[in-house]
Amino acid sequence: MNFRRKNIKKQHCEVIVGAQCGNAVLRGAHVYVPGIVSASKFMKAGDVISVYSDIKGKCKKGAKEFDGTKVFLGNGISELSRKEIFSGLPELKGIGIRMTEPIYLSPSFDNVLPSYLFLQNLPSVVVTHVLDPQPGEKILDMCAAPGGKTTHIAALMHDQGEVIALDKISNKVEKIKQNALLLGLNSIKAFCFDGTKALKLNTVKDAEGKPPFLPESFDRILLDAPCSGMGQRPNMACSWTLKEVTSYQPLQRKLFTVAVELLKPGGVLVYSTCTITLAENEEQVAWALRTFPYLQLQPQEAHIGGEGMVGAGLSLEQLKQLQRFGPSVVPLRGTDIDSLRDARIEDMIWLANKDCIGFFIAKFIKCKST
């Protein structure tokens, strides 16, 4: 949960970062050197710096000033001088600006007990409990990077069984492997592989257990599908086009079809997104129930989010079995942290459960063989 700080004094010395880096800062990160686009002419290590994000990507690398559209992110202390930042040395990848006064009170947990903790948003924790993995099972995480849900699945199974994690981007797969190693989880096997091609079309069994896989190979499958990401917050700007948003539905259906084929009869399939559109959520559930009559929608435990959204032709009972999260507590907008210092811990927990990213969860069971 993020609370906006007020009355932060802007400094004359400025650093401009890219939009991706800016979003990370809004969510509690420090500014790392690769994210810095420009810095004031005489910036030295130890200076108090105002950090801005170039949301339109117009600032030139290495510029000494920038008058274009920029969003203030807060103040920090420079770890390096301007000359060091733009020296071109490839080994400079650490913290460039240590944020001391971010505009949102969302503290960084970077490297805090890394062998024990993996920080996730509330709905991302809930979705793994909804999947309810059991020791000894074979489970597929189809779109797994960076591995938060994957490692949570393995932990809930007490690291007993097999967790297959797929992602089609190699450096993201390496991140999954690193996280599994860091947390001491041996049940995870991560592969660089496109989930849409994970179903083996012939009947020759692969003795090495690598993708693609034979039909009905998995006890449970998590499809945390690629989506428009419109539930991510805080965010600086909404730049989605209609074409971009509508492009995800066919991909999600292709992945879902493969997941159904790979699931054993009696197995559980959980579909989730971090977006808020009807087309990527409830409409996908309605399509799945029409397309695969042997799938049944299931109630979810834990269920602490809201019900599904009307408009996709689902019954009221079906909508109650779905789970939506979002920033539903309107009075929190503009709230200053000082006004919450005397709040009861119970109230703070309630607010945290309500004021979160947009997220959607649906749980299915496969009643018979395809």
From TrEMBL:
SMART domains in UniProt: PUA
Keyword flag DNA damage: no
SUPFAM superfamilies: PUA domain-like, S-adenosyl-L-methionine-dependent methyltransferases
Name by which UniProt lists this protein: tRNA (Cytosine(72)-C(5))-methyltransferase NSUN6 isoform X3
Gene: NSUN6
Domain of life from the UniProt record: Eukaryota
InterPro entries: MeTrfase_RsmB-F_NOP2_cat (IPR049560), MeTrfase_RsmB-F_NOP2_dom (IPR001678), PUA (IPR002478), PUA-like_sf (IPR015947), PUA_sf (IPR036974), RCMT (IPR023267), RsmB/NOL1/NOP2-like_CS (IPR018314), SAM-dependent_MTases_sf (IPR029063)
Binding site for S-adenosyl-L-methionine: C143, A144, A145, P146, G147, G148, K149, D167, D194, D224
Regions that span the bilayer: none
Similarity comment: Belongs to the class I-like SAM-binding methyltransferase superfamily. RsmB/NOP family.
Gene Ontology terms: biological process: RNA methylation
Pfam families assigned: Methyltr_RsmB-F (PF01189)
Residue intervals of the SAM-dependent MTase RsmB/NOP-type domain: 42-367
KW Methyltransferase (keyword) present: yes
GO molecular-function terms, A-Z: RNA binding; RNA methyltransferase activity
Assigned keywords, A-Z: Acetylation, Methyltransferase, RNA-binding, S-adenosyl-L-methionine, Transferase
Residues the record marks as active site: C274 (nucleophile)
